[in-house]
Design goal:
3-stranded antiparallel β-sheet, 46% helix, 11 helices, homodimer, DNA-binding
DNA sequence: CGGCGGCTTGATTCGAGTCAAGAACCGTGG
DNA sequence: CCACGGTTCTTGACTCGAATCAAGCCGCCG
């Protein structure tokens, strides 16, 4: 119903809006329609689960603010983080597209998050009404797969130092896509370890080395990127797989996170 | 134009047909329309490239027969295999959906392959005409991402023995989805190494161990699965992520590869 | 028959995991 | 404001899995 969102709502959806545009959604009315179908859920605290595996659901979840991660637990107790999620990212498109209760994948908040939902039926209807939305979401899925492949390369072929550097670069780039520019790394070392397939102990050593190389530094407990150029070159990260997206977005906008 | 395919053509498309049905394409006329837009390319020999990176193209490629792999070369010379492709699989949907010249990903033939192409413009038109085709291809993309995640888990968290066992199970299951049932492993040990993120030397040792455990055996030079059950349990492979698909396919059909 | 690519085997090295203990940091509540 | 308890991070000692190097071997194709 709400084609005219009140100012504060529109405000909270800036990142989602940007992301949809980045993915090629040109019609403003289509975007407004999507935003109009979003129901906000209560905020989620750092380290809490946003989505648990196995449970069937009648709606999809979209991250409005904060950083989250998509992960799976393995029998031996450790967890693998597959990808990080940023404002404007959908968390469980797979549950919508593949009818199965989405294997063992869960989503957890890395920082405090605010999340919204859209009913599956609403989404279907939106896609029917705006076929471009279908393409946009398909594109988002492909992009995710593309990112995952690159990550796989890094995890399976690079030594620990480069692997961690790679993750850090990936993080910076993904934030930029939605217009957030910050040197601070919200992930804990354990998060990075679980994403890179390393032990927390080794990530700690790697981080020490990154500090020695003056690529990173510490601000209280959080890590901070000092020299992004050299970090990227160390990791052999080029971000070319996001180029396509960059072309479509007003690239220089900088918004610092709260 | 050809809604009435001649018998031999229809024959060569059995796997693609099965795959489309498996993915939820119910209308026979829609399937025939898709098949009608396929142009066959000359066969590709074992170890030859089917698709090279970077080159823009006006059509997408679909694997009709044989086994191929999607891979990327890394600066240091080694290669990472991201996934294997089976009859009925599309090789470069990403190039269609993301306009970019698809990063560094290439496709190579593991065995002799026959491949077909569909012009991007034809595909667009087909999707417009049969919206379900859009969903089907989106679903195929999501499924691929899902498989990739599972693989990532294995690569980053399991020791070598399990990793290789996992790949073998994945291979068997993926072949079954399109109705091929065979114990023989067409991949060379080097292929498996490049997919598992191991050295060829170590894969050789792992294979010796698999033989000792009576899970695998050698037939001339090719490997053969002896005990699939125990192999799957060793690898902690459950194939649940393909369950959804199994429900939709006539599961017991067995077709031995040439 | 020769030669080549894929597989095997052994010796050695090294990166990263594990275990264990301690330190720094954080939020909490007295 | 400070003492407390729990994370998260750090450090060191030790172990071990897998990479690398280097030959030699088998099966295949010309």
């Amino acid at each position: 119903m709400t084609n005219s969102l009140i100012q504060s709502e529109r405000q909270s959806f800036v990142h989602l809006t940007k992301r949809l545009k980045t993915l090629g959604m040109d019609s403003q009315t289509a975007i407004e329609s999507v935003l109009g179908r979003i129901t906000m859920r209560p905020g989620v605290n750092k380290a809490e689960d946003i989505l648990v595996p196995g449970r069937a659901s009648r709606h999809i979840t979209v991250l409005i603010a904060g950083v989250a991660c998509l992960y799976e637990r393995v029998p031996n107790g450790s967890r693998q983080i597959f990808s990080f999620r940023y404002p404007g990212d959908f968390c469980d498109l797979n549950r919508h597209v593949l009818q199965e209760t989405n294997s063992g994948v869960a989503v957890a908040a890395i920082t405090c998050c605010s999340v919204g939902t859209i009913a599956h039926s609403d989404l279907d209807q939106l896609i029917r009404q705006y076929p471009e939305l279908g393409s946009v979401l398909w594109r988002a899925s492909m992009l995710e797969a593309s990112i995952l492949r690159k990550r796989m390369l890094s995890v399976s072929r690079q030594p620990a130092l480069q692997r961690v550097a790679y993750l850090l670069c990936e993080h910076l780039y993904q934030q930029e896509v939605v217009g957030i520019s910050s040197d601070l790394i919200p992930q804990s070392q354990l998060d990075l370890a679980d994403a890179a397939g390393l032990s927390n102990v080794h990530v700690s050593r790697v981080f020490k080395e990154l500090q020695r190389l003056e690529l990173m530094s510490k601000e209280g407990r959080v890590m901070k990127v000092r020299n992004r150029q050299r970090l990227a070159s160390l990791a052999e990260f080029d971000g070319a797989y996001l180029n396509m997206l960059r072309l479509r977005s007003e690239w220089q906008v900088k918004i610092d996170p709260p």
